[in-house]
Design goal:
Length: 139
């Protein structure tokens, strides 16, 4: 995977509220091509591993419980400048600070339950994509 791919998850809060279709519509309308996608459910251990980078943060336990409480949609997205452009599309971590029209402004609940994940670097996009998908599941 090179600089034209990022990894995303539609988080349990947005799935619970029935926003999968609307969020995928925003993503594809913004020019991202879906090259891998699955509906899945992180175990507590999966969530602990995926977010290990945040293990010293005060919100780690809450984050792991949230991300493993229900199903998610995981996907790899392709577009020029994917990582940066996708983080613009989703908006600030805290939806109260997110720009109008961003996915988090439209669909997030609060800073913890913020509807979507987006990789923060090309390197992490590769690691996170490989966490969820084998090479045979990427098209
Ligand atoms: P993400 O990794 O999910 O795309 O979000 P992000 O880069 O905007 O934010 P990050 O700092 O990486 O935090 C990861 C996720 O942890 C939860 N969080 N909760 N309670 C809190 O203060 C708090 N702060 C962060 C959010 O779900 C955030 O997206
Ligand atoms: Mg992050």
């Amino acid at each position: 995977m090179s600089g034209n791919r990022t990894f995303t998850m539609i988080k349990p809060d947005a799935v619970e509220k029935g926003h999968i279709g609307a969020i995928l519509e925003k993503i594809t309308a913004a020019g991202f091509k879906i090259v891998a996608m699955k509906y899945t459910h992180l175990s507590q251990r999966d969530a602990e591993q995926f977010y290990a980078v945040h293990s010293e943060r005060p919100f780690y336990g809450e984050l792991v419980a949230f991300m493993s409480r229900g199903p998610i949609v995981a996907a790899i997205l392709e577009k020029d400048n994917a990582v940066e452009d996708f983080r613009v599309l989703i908006g600030s971590t805290n939806p109260a600070e997110a720009a109008e029209g961003t996915i988090r402004k439209m669909f997030a609940t609060d800073i913890a339950e913020n509807a979507v994940h987006g990789s923060d670097s090309d390197e992490n996009a590769v690691i996170e994509g490989a966490f969820h998908f084998s090479g045979r599941e990427i098209f």
